[in-house]
């Protein structure tokens, strides 16, 4: 019996008997993980895995980042407040001050900060709720291929019909518009939306807001063109529609700048952040709101865990770490490496393999080269070779590369070499 069989046997006797069928990631990565450091995860048996998943984007600064960890440990040693609802605390005050100093003010952004429930989907819910309250309109425009979360409101603006199959009626008052992807790349999607809004017989009412991702991550690593984003912003201005940017997965430096929309030089009316905003994988989400839109009544959107004090501490340390180590420039260097490697070593295998990405989020699309079956074989073989990498996109045909931003170049190269080896072995068969 090999090491994988032993681990799977142990998992079978515990998790499969006691844990719900809804479990997901563990099915694709069947090992028992014990500790992690930087961009490496270690199993109970001592096996090392390079992490190209990074907590689905929640670990931009790596596992157990020393700088952030020390701040958190010092706070705990001092018996700092661990739970505080939305009361004033030193941890929250420090985070707000640092976020304003290092992010908002240098970028000349004037946003109010709303701390939501601990997951990104709650911040999405808050954004949709506030947009409807402000505009007194019920409709929302979202995009085909979008992913915004798993609670009912967030599911309503998520494109994947499979994940919301059990939630009847979630898409009421939501209209899905075409994203510039696939055959729609040759179609002027902004002009189409504009014509729908200007046509009194389109059957579609003006929405309260349009919610979008600058890079559709779960949708298959689809990067929105700069011109498209600028025109979307202008369209919202012309029609008095609020623009909501979901920066949960591709914000916090994933594409290079802190916000992914910066490359288009636009300013959304609301911005949603979660995942890596806490710096350490702690649950945290927030909604940035243009001041004139902040018309909430006290307690109108609330939650027991909207005051995650450890997340405030970790988030403050992460902002300082990002500033002192020049993470943004580091991402540019790794972006250059990934782009060159994937195009030269992977896309060259076949013209039917497409590579897309930006910064430290890249996808290998094999929809027209083996499809979901090949993608699954590749990621499974990668896991056997010591690399954790997942599949996304329509029918899970896109291999998604999402390492910590802080991954060392030699480890990044090794992880990419494993992907190349998996392709060579499986395609040759």
Automatic annotation (TrEMBL):
Keyword terms, alphabetized: Aminotransferase, Pyridoxal phosphate, Transferase
Annotated coiled-coil segments of the chain: none
Highest taxon in the source lineage: Bacteria
Gene Ontology biological-process annotations: ectoine biosynthetic process
GO molecular function per UniProt: diaminobutyrate-2-oxoglutarate transaminase activity; diaminobutyrate-pyruvate transaminase activity; pyridoxal phosphate binding
Iron-sulfur listed as a keyword: no
Class in the EC hierarchy, top level: transferase
Biological pathway: Amine and polyamine biosynthesis; ectoine biosynthesis; L-ectoine from L-aspartate 4-semialdehyde: step 1/3
InterPro entries registered for this protein in UniProt: Aminotrans_3 (IPR005814), Aminotrans_3_PPA_site (IPR049704), Dat (IPR004637), Ectoine_EctB (IPR012773), PyrdxlP-dep_Trfase (IPR015424), PyrdxlP-dep_Trfase_major (IPR015421), PyrdxlP-dep_Trfase_small (IPR015422)
EC id: 2.6.1.76
CC cofactor: pyridoxal 5'-phosphate
Protein family according to the UniProt entry: Belongs to the class-III pyridoxal-phosphate-dependent aminotransferase family.
Protein's name in the database: Diaminobutyrate--2-oxoglutarate transaminase
Organism: Nostoc flagelliforme CCNUN1
């Amino acid at each position: 019996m090999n090491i994988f069989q032993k681990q799977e046997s142990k998992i079978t006797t515990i998790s499969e008997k006691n844990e719900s069928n809804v479990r997901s990631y563990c099915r694709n990565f069947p090992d028992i993980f014990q500790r992690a450091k930087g961009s490496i995860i270690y199993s109970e048996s001592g096996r090392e895995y390079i992490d190209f998943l990074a907590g689905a984007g929640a670990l931009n600064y790596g596992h157990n980042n020393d700088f952030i960890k020390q701040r958190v440990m010092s706070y705990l040693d001092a018996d700092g407040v661990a739970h505080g609802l939305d009361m004033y605390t030193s941890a929250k005050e420090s985070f707000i001050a640092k976020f304003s100093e290092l992010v908002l003010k240098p970028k000349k952004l004037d946003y109010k900060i709303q701390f939501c429930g601990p997951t990104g989907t709650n911040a999405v819910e808050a954004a949709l709720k506030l947009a409807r309250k402000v505009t007194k309109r019920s409709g929302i425009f979202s995009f085909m291929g979008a992913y915004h979360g798993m609670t009912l409101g967030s599911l309503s603006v998520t494109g994947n019909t499979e994940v919301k199959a059990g939630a009847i009626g979630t898409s009421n008052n939501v209209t899905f518009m075409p994203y510039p992807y696939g055959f729609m790349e040759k179609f002027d999607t902004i002009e189409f939306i504009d014509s729908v809004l200007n046509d009194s017989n389109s059957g579609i009412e003006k929405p309260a807001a349009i919610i979008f991702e600058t890079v559709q991550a779960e949708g298959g690593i689809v990067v929105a063109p700069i011109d498209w984003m600028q025109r979307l912003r202008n369209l919202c201005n012309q029609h008095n529609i609020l623009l909501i940017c979901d920066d949960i997965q591709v914000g916090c430096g994933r594409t290079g700048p802190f916000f992914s929309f910066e490359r288009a030089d636009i300013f959304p009316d609301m911005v949603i952040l979660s995942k890596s905003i806490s710096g350490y994988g702690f649950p945290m989400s927030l909604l940035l709101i243009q001041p004139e839109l902040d018309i909430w009544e006290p307690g109108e959107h609330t939650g027991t865990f909207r005051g995650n004090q450890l997340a405030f501490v970790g988030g403050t340390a992460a902002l300082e770490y990002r500033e002192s180590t020049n993470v943004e420039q580091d991402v540019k260097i790794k972006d250059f490496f990934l782009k060159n490697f994937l195009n030269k070593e992977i896309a060259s295998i076949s013209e039917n393999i497409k590579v897309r990405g930006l910064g430290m989020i890249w996808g290998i699309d094999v929809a027209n080269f083996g499809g979901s079956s090949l993608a699954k074989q590749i990621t499974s073989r990668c896991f056997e070779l010591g690399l954790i990498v997942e599949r996304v996109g329509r029918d899970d045909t896109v291999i998604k590369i999402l390492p910590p931003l802080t991954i060392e170049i030699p480890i990044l190269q090794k992880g990419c070499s494993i992907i190349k080896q998996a392709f060579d072995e499986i395609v040759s068969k």
